[in-house]
Each structure stands twice: as structure tokens, then as C-alpha cells.
Design goal:
475 residues; alpha/beta; five-stranded mixed sheet; three-stranded antiparallel sheet; 17 helices; 14 strands; 41% helix; 12% strand; binds ligand P71
Length: 475
């Protein structure tokens, strides 16, 4: 069978609203052409993010009822701690309310002013916390990751030559750790290989650099390893996850993704001293170290979610293949997007979709707004607006990847929802020459993409050479 049918049936439904084009035109204008500022009730199919948007299982809803809401020493904490230890293999566990809180604590503790923090591509919140702690982020992902059409099977891998260059230039003592992300979000949900993890760990051990995993999408990454890496076909997802984590010294995690819950996160590590310090920080910023910003019931649902994510391989196969399905349908319409397809989302290539809109006029932001007007589907910009300004030069960073992310919430939408989204985007593609760029009317200083507001600029006619460039980009 080409596509994997849902390994569950639907027990509770939530009605969603169809709106008219006129209604959506008004709504997006009021939202300053920023899909983050739309009201969710005005959205038909919400592909903004896979973060905190999962449908929980009946066992997770039952677990909620078993929440022990004691201020200290909740039994759900001990259950969650044991689950994290068993599934990911780290010795120590510190709960936080979500991923960026774990990043905040880790960055504060490990980074000193003037340090460098390499990573396999930036993530917005991760890099910001590194910068706020006085560090500088250095991209050490393989070059293929910046090419939307490279078919490299592990576009998330770290390029060890880039690591060596950084060590030679700044000295290992100024590199406290590497932030190593699984299924690299900003690269299009692209996985790392076990071999790369193993080699990276050997390299870092030689220089006394910690490998800190961004564990947000490790379950999805394990599925790609099972499918693509020699020697892993007969290993279970659970075994692969455990082995991958064994090549790292600890992790931050936004549990709102692969953890199958609506809120939650954690920090985990093998180093006792780091653990003691992290536990001391969590009580300042999050809450007591036995809840870290989560309610007892949230921890119960998360422990159950983690167990479900690795209990059988059926769930994750369906999950990643559903994303692949959307990519294949878009491909059949000739819509330019990042390949190979990622685990959690399909990323449209806005530079190729709108070659007549210069990157300084935010083509991906504009495309996300137009997709909403055309279809009622909400997507997210992942391009020049997300990348922000360079703190030194103050210039827009203009990343190579100018993308619109169609993100699939876990266990929420059916194949027909995805067919509808793809068909609408194909319709928009036919009159894409009518779409213009945007200009800022309100630009927040940090993480500007969340609250920025824009106004439309007139569409410039598409020139013949831009059409050619677009053909080239699609190859
Ligand atoms: C996503 C999110 C949520 C988000 C965050 C920032 C801008 C837009 C959307 C969150 C991640 C993530 C990775 C790899 C850490 C976090 C922060 N992703 N690492 O993709 O993808 O976790 O949101 O729980 O604080 O929509 P947090």
C-alpha cells in the first residue's frame, strides 16, 4: 500500500468553519498579513504548526484524570522522569513548561559571553537564547541543507569539516556545546543519520565539547533512519531513538511535537553537576523541580504520549507518510517545494513560487497570507521574516531558504483535508503573477515574526527571465 491508513479511529470531533474569500480578505488585513495574528476560529484547516496541536489518545485523556496536583513530589513527575530515562536514556530530568524554557536554562548555564555555539541550522528561539546568554550561533549543517532540491537523504547532518574549522579558528574552550537538532525544522524537517551522530560525538569528545540534542522531533527522525540508513531496517523506532540519544550528552525538548501533548517540555542530561544547576534555575523561572511549569495532569498526559510514540512503529509510519502524501499531491500539481519531504511539514519554495517578488519584500510572508485568502488554510512563513536581522549589521539576514511551511498536526486531519489544501494551492499557483510583496508597518525587535504587521505592495509583472529562473529553481 502506497499510503498508510490511520492507525486509529475518531471518537471526538471538533467542528471547523468554512468562510468566504471576502471574509478572509478582511480577516488577513486585520491580522496585518501575518498568519500568527489570525483568530483560529477564522481558519478552516490549521497548518500553522505541529506544536501543541496534536490530538491526544483516549489513554492520554484518561491519564489527565489521574493528575496528582500536589505542589511537591507529584507521582506524575516520577512517572514522567522514569519514562524519559527509559525511552531516551538520559540519567537526569528537569521538567519545563515548553521547549524554549529548557533552552533558556541551558543557554544561561552553559554559555559565557564571547562563546560560540555551533548548530545544524538555527532555530528561532534556540538562537535567540544563545544570543541573550552572550553567545554567537554558527551554522555547521551540511551545504545540501541550504539547497531546497538536493536529494541528500540526511540533509540535517553536521558537516564535521565546518566543526573542525570553527575549533581551529576560535579554540575548543570557547565552544561549550553543539546544539544538535533532529529532523531539522528550518531545513524542511530533514533528518540526521546515526552515523553522523556517532562521528559527531567522537569529534566533540576529543575536544571536550558537549553534544546537546534538540530532541523535539527525534521520533520522526528515527523513522527516517529506519527507512534510509543501512543496517536499521529491522530495528524498532524505540531502539533507534535510544541509540541516537546515546551519542549525545543531554537534550532540550519541546514535548508539544513528538510528545503528543498540547503543552510541556524538558531538559535532560547525564552530567550531575549540570543537573543540579539546572534544577536550581528551574525553580526561579518555571516552578518547583517536580513540575517545572506543567500541571500534574500535563505530566501524566506527556508520559503516556512518549510511551505511545514508541510503543509500535505503526503510529510514526502513518505520521510521516501522511506528510509525504501532501508532498506527493503538491508535486503532482508542479508546486515547487523542498525535497526530500520532511517529517512534520511540507515546505513550499516561495522564491520559486513568486520569483518576481524580491526577498526584501518577503515573498514567503506574502504567499502564506495569499494561501489563507485563497483556501482558508493557515500556513507559516519560514524565510526572511523568521530569520530576523543580524544583531551586528542590523540588516535582514536574507536566508537561502525562503519557505512557507504547511505543518501537519499529529492525528488531527484526514487525507481529504490535505487534498483540499493542495488543490487550493494549485489554483493559487495559476495566478501567482498577481501576488505582490509586503512591507513592515510594525516590526518587533525580537522574534519579530510572531507579532509583525505588514501592508501589501503592488505586484510587479513577472519577467521572462524570472520564469526561466523559476524553472531552474524547480529542478
Ligand atoms: C514550530 C515551533 C513553535 C514555534 C516556535 C517559534 C517560532 C514559531 C513556532 C518550536 C521549537 C522547535 C525546535 C526544533 C525548539 C522549539 C521551541 N517549534 N526547537 O515548529 O521546532 O519549543 O515552542 O515548545 O518553546 O512551530 P517551544
Amino acid at each position: 500500500m502506497k499510503y498508510i491508513p490511520e492507525p486509529f479511529k475518531i471518537k471526538t470531533v471538533e467542528p471547523i468553519k468554512m468562510t468566504t474569500r471576502e471574509y478572509r480578505q478582511k480577516a488577513i488585513k486585520e491580522a496585518g498579513y501575518n498568519t500568527f495574528l489570525l483568530r483560529s476560529e477564522d481558519v478552516y484547516i490549521d497548518l500553522l504548526t505541529d506544536s501543541g496541536t496534536s490530538a491526544m489518545s483516549d489513554a492520554q485523556w484518561a491519564a489527565l484524570q489521574m493528575g496528582d496536583e500536589a505542589y511537591a513530589g507529584s507521582r506524575n513527575f516520577y512517572d514522567l522522569e522514569r519514562t524519559v530515562q527509559e525511552v531516551f536514556g538520559f540519567k537526569y530530568f528537569v521538567p519545563t513548561h515548553q521547549g524554549r524554557a529548557a533552552e533558556h536554562i541551558m543557554s544561561k548555564l552553559l554559555i559565557k559571553t564571547g562563546d560560540y555555539v555551533p548548530g545544524n541550522m538555527y532555530f528561532t528561539t534556540t538562537r535567540l537564547h544563545q544570543e541573550l546568554a552572550g553567545g554567537t550561533f554558527i551554522d555547521v549543517i551540511v551545504d545540501e541543507a541550504h539547497d531546497p532540491y538536493s536529494r541528500h537523504p540526511f540533509k540535517g547532518n553536521v558537516d564535521l569539516k565546518k566543526m573542525q574549522k570553527l575549533v581551529d579558528e576560535v579554540g575548543a574552550e570557547r565552544i561549550p556545546y553543539i546544539s544538535y537538532e533532529t529532523c531539522v525544522n528550518m531545513a524542511g524537517g530533514q533528518p540526521v543519520s546515526i552515523q553522523n551522530a556517532r562521528e559527531l560525538k567522537e569529534f566533540c569528545d576529543k575536544y571536550g565539547i558537549k553534544v546537546m540534542l534538540d530532541n523535539t522531533r527525534t521520533i520522526e527522525n528515527a523513522y527516517f533512519i529506519q527507512q534510509r540508513e543501512p543496517g536499521y531496517k529491522n530495528k524498532s523506532i524505540r531502539e533507534i531513538v535510544y541509540e541516537l540519544c546515546s551519542y549525545t550528552d543531554g537534550c532540550t525538548c519541546s514535548a508539544k511535537k513528538d510528545g503528543l501533548v498540547n503543552i510541556g517540555g524538558f531538559l535532560a542530561m547525564n552530567d550531575e553537576e549540570f543537573f543540579v544547576q539546572a534544577r536550581a534555575q528551574v525553580v526561579i523561572y518555571e516552578g518547583l523541580h517536580t513540575y517545572g511549569g506543567m500541571a500534574g495532569r500535563d505530566m501524566a498526559a506527556l508520559a503516556q504520549g512518549i510511551r505511545e510514540s514508541v510503543a509500535t512503529d505503526d503510529y510514526i509510519r502513518y505520521r510521516v507518510e501522511q506528510t509525504n502524501y501532501l508532498g506527493d499531491v503538491l508535486e503532482s500539481y508542479g508546486i515547487p517545494h523542498v525535497v526530500p519531504h520532511g517529517g512534520h511539514a511540507i515546505f513550499l519554495n516561495a522564491r520559486a513560487f513568486l520569483p518576481h517578488v524580491p526577498q526584501e519584500e518577503f515573498p514567503a510572508q506574502s504567499l502564506a497570507a495569499e494561501i489563507y485568502v485563497e483556501t482558508g488554510v493557515r500556513a507559516m512563513e519560514r524565510g526572511n521574516v523568521s530569520a530576523g536581522r543580524d544583531p551586528v549589521t542590523g540588516k535582514n539576514r536574507c536566508p537561502k531558504l525562503e519557505l512557507v511551511r504547511l505543518t501537519i498536526p499529529r492525528r488531527v486531519y484526514t487525507q481529504s483535508h490535505l487534498d483540499y489544501a493542495a488543490e487550493g494551492i494549485a489554483k493559487l499557483y495559476k495566478h501567482r503573477d498577481k501576488i505582490g510583496g509586503l512591507k513592515f508597518v510594525f516590526e518587533p525587535q525580537m522574534l519579530r515574526f510572531f507579532q509583525a504587521r505588514f501592508e501589501p505592495l503592488p505586484a510587479r509583472p513577472m519577467k521572462a527571465e524570472e520564469m526561466v529562473e523559476e524553472e531552474h529553481l524547480r529542478r
